[in-house]
Amino acid sequence: MTLELVFGSLLLTMAWGMAQPVIKGAYGGLTPFGLLWLRCTAGAVTLTIFSLIARTPERVTHHDPWKEKGHRILSACMHNVYIWFLYQGMFGTAAARASVLLYSQPIWVMLLSAAFLTGERITLVRALGFATAMAGTVTVFSQGLGADSALWADSYILIAAFLWAVQTIHFRRYLSSSDVVSIARWIMLIGAPTYFFLSSHEPNFGIISLGGAQIFAIIYMGVIASALLLAYWGHLLLKYSPAKISVFFFMTPIVGVVGSALYLGEQLGWHLLIGAGLTAAGVWLVTGERR
CA 20 to 30 Å from 172, out of 7, 30, 72, 206? Predict the structure, then answer.
């Protein structure tokens, strides 16, 4: 492994692991729809400027441009549906719990890959990883639901993890050679007006107040996590295999749990810590086998 691969993958892991605490911290002044349309707007502007400055040729998967556009629109719609479940669920559960539950996503990717992608199969090691990660999820749920968590919200996070996996399989099957920056821009351009319309029934389009936490969340989620780092992820994918990058992502739920304690001051019970450890171990088993 090169220094760029290690540093880049760890950077993505740290940044995306902190996403749940940052989202939760913004809900004191923004509704989920308010944060979503602001995040998508910031991301669309950033990616458009990035594309103009970089002037890189757009890579395509299909010879038929209409098929390419159709799959990009479908990918954007699937992304925005999973993001809707994530942001709604984040409103009703603790950020640390959400981090552990959301990053069961590689496990669902493993199961769906075996069903829909050629050459993928469930080995004994992957089955063990699935069982370990699911034990982590059960452990998190066994902690009970206090004032900071609701059953519907935790369920929304799990649905988001599954839908994210579905979008990942679609991407690998139909858009794996396409331009990552362009795909991300389509996601933001479709998401911004959609969430703005959905926020129209809320006072001030979901903006209650704009303080430091809200502005930071818009910049972090829209510009950094959803735009610049996504473009950097695309750069890494051009040079290294997805399997070598994804092996680092087993640490993401741990980053989310620690970040929730430091950034939000959430209390971490032993159920949550054990659940995070089991989930991380399960994801490592599933992704690490393909290094």
Answer: 7
Q: How many CA atoms lie within 13 A of 115 on its CB side?
A: 10
- Output the six-digit token pair for 86: 């994530």
- 1 pLDDT exceeds 60? no
Gap between the Cα atoms of 205 and 180, Å rounded? 30
Q: How far apart are CA 87 and CA 134, in angstroms?
A: 22
DSSP summary character for residue 30: B
Tell me the residue type at 266.
E
Phi, psi of 117 (to 5 degrees): -110, 135
Q: Are 71 and 62 in contact (CB under 8 A)?
A: yes
3-state SS track over 198-260? HHHHCHHHHECCCCHHHHHHHHHHHHHHHHHHHHHHHHHHHHCCHHHHHHHHHHHHHHHHHHH
Query: 271 versus 59: which is more confidently predicted?
Result: 271
Token pair for 41: 């707007």
Average pLDDT, the chain: 84
HEC-encoded secondary structure of 116-151? HCCCCCCCHHHHHHHHHHHHHHHHHHHCCCCCCCCH
pLDDT tens-digit readout, 205-253: 999 999 999 999 999 999 998 888 877 876 676 676 555 666 666 778 8
Identify the domain containing residue 212 by its residue range: 3-288
Gyration radius from the chain CA atoms: 18
Q: How many structural domains comprise the chain? A: 1
* In contact, 72 and 178? CB cutoff 8 Å: yes
What are the tens digits of pLDDT across the range 4-62?
877 887 888 889 889 999 999 999 999 999 999 999 999 999 999 888 887 766 767 76
Asked if 99 contacts 264 with a C-beta cutoff of 8 angstroms, the reply is no
